[in-house]
Amino acid sequence: MTPKTEAELADAIASAKPPLRIIGGGTRPIGNPVAGEVLSTANLTGIELYEPGALTIVAKAGTPLADIEEALSKENQRLAFEPMDHRGLLGTKGTPTIGGVVAGNISGPRRVQAGACRDHMLGVRFVDGAGTVLKNGGRVMKNVTGYDLVKLLTGSYGTLGVMSEVSLKVLPKTDTQATVMLHGLDIPQAVKAMSAALGSPYEVSAAAHMPDMGHGAVTMLRVEGFEKSVAYRCDQLKNTLAEYGEITVEADPDKSANIWTASRDVAGFAKTDGDVWRISVKPTDGATLAAKLNTDKLFMDWGGGLIWAVVPKGTDLRARMNGTQGHATLIRADEATRAKLDVFHPELAPIAKISAGLRAKFDPKGILNPGLMA
Questions:
Q1: Which domains does the chain have, with CATH numbers?
Q2: Residue 53 and which of 75, 84, 292, 308 are 20 to 30 A apart at CA?
């Protein structure tokens, strides 16, 4: 089913009897396998409202992300949380949509400075599992009142409702950018350096580390803003981090942008064999956890708070966390592994009870992506 209007979407859900497998642009087959009739939002497209002066955009859920970014770019604006493009990593095609980004709370390297997708959401329209159209939030932050369904729907992967329209806050683009690179650090040193950089007054907008996988370890720090300010802050970071050894600066803004596009999309793991896991952890625990994972195929983002790891197929990476607090999500694996291992990190009993209650409330028939997250 591919409804073209919100009314058609509501009718399709209200009349549905078998389970529904909700998809957007078909780019991210993340989650436990779902058996059901496909319900796609790909035909719910179009920018409904864009007010550059108010830093606000409203679009239908199936609107291609590229269309959103093109419209924003014409006004020298952007989605500050820079959503990841999973297609290279997952080996998929399809078209990333703004609804898919919101459903997965997809956020890139700038999250350490600008926040996640969830933090930029202003409003949402969606259809619940009973076929009822609901709206929450507004077009400016002050209009978000009552139950914050906007935050609840963001990251729910279509298990609480099917989004038809989203409203987001946007921000201006920066004038230029550069990347400060520290070479040859081991993971504990890299985490300390990233922490020092993020805690400095030099407004680092991204911090990532690639261990030595044959080309030398590199720790990367992004600095954005006006040209003179960027140059000054890069120099100050070099002085601040001098104890960590060799430091270079990629001052070409296009080359720096390419570095962070590759980091955002975890491009280094696109053609590797094995399962790909994404682990969210306290940055201060990043180095300890990295040692426990027993793999040399690691990539650390968010100052050490996000770890991407590649392990042999079928490996239960959660068992290697060994008491370290965090959330491990199985991002890329075959059907057999996804059927064997929970894709999303198992919830603690009290949280699981709340989650089950929410799903029963918003999806009383149990038809929206059943089993995808649990």
A1: 6-172 (3.30.465.10), 176-264 (3.30.70.260), 267-340 (3.30.70)
A2: 84
Tally of CB atoms within 10 A around 291: 12
At 110, list the tokens: 């700038």
Supply 7's token pair. 């009314």
pLDDT in tens, 167-211: 999 999 999 999 999 999 999 999 999 999 999 999 999 999 998
- In this structure, are residues 194 and 304 in contact, taking their beta carbons and an 8 Å threshold? yes
Provide the whole-model pTM. Answer: 0.90
Q: DSSP states of 3-64 as a string?
A: -SSHHHHHHHHHH--S-EEEESSS----SS---SEEEE-TT---EEEEEGGGTEEEEETTSB
Sign, CA torsion 157/163/169/173: positive
CA distances from 66 to 82, 319, 351, 354 (A): 12, 38, 36, 36
Q: E-strand spans in 200-321?
A: 204-210, 218-225, 247-250, 275-281, 298-301, 306-311
Rounded Cα distance between 232 and 161, Å, is: 48
User: Residue 128 CA to chain centroid, in angstroms?
Assistant: 23
